[in-house]
Amino acid sequence: MAAAALNPEATATGEKLEEAFRLIPIADQLRGESKAARASAIELLDQAETEATHKKK
């Protein structure tokens, strides 16, 4: 790497960028799982509310 010879910080920055791009798919997967978990929790709360409402009647 010619950039490393000229500026060692360029190598470190390049490595950080490579790591960040490598982690993008993992972050997307976690975001999707989080969104699915949130939707499931809301659905469970809605079911519990519906059941509680029906029991009162």
Explain what you see.
- By secondary structure, the protein is an all-alpha fold.
- Helix content is 95%, strand content 0%.
- The protein has two helices and no strands.
- The chain has helices spanning 2-6, 8-56.
- The radius of gyration is 24 Å and the shape is rod-shaped.
- The termini are far apart.
Radius of gyration: 24 Å
Distance between the amino and carboxyl termini? 75 Å
Largest sheet: none
Q: Summarize the amount of helix as a percent range.
A: over 70%
Q: What is this structure, in a nutshell?
A:
By secondary structure, the protein is mainly α. The protein has 2 helices and no strands.
Secondary structure blueprint with pairings:
Layout: H1 2-6, H2 8-56
Key attributes of the depicted protein:
mainly alpha; 0% strand; 57 residues; 2 helices; rod-shaped
